[in-house]
Amino acid sequence: MKARPVALRRIHDAALRLYAEKGTSEVSVSELAQMAGVARGTIYNNLEQPDGLFEKVAGQFAEEMNAYVVEVLGEIDDPAQRLSAGIRMYVQRAHEEPHWGRFMIQFAYTNSALRSLWTGPPMQDLQSGIASSRYDIGQEQLPCALGLIGGATLSAVMLVLEGQATWRDAGTQTAMLALRSLGVDMAEANRVARLEIPLWRSGD
Question: Which run of H or of E encompasses 38?
Answer without folding.
Answer: none
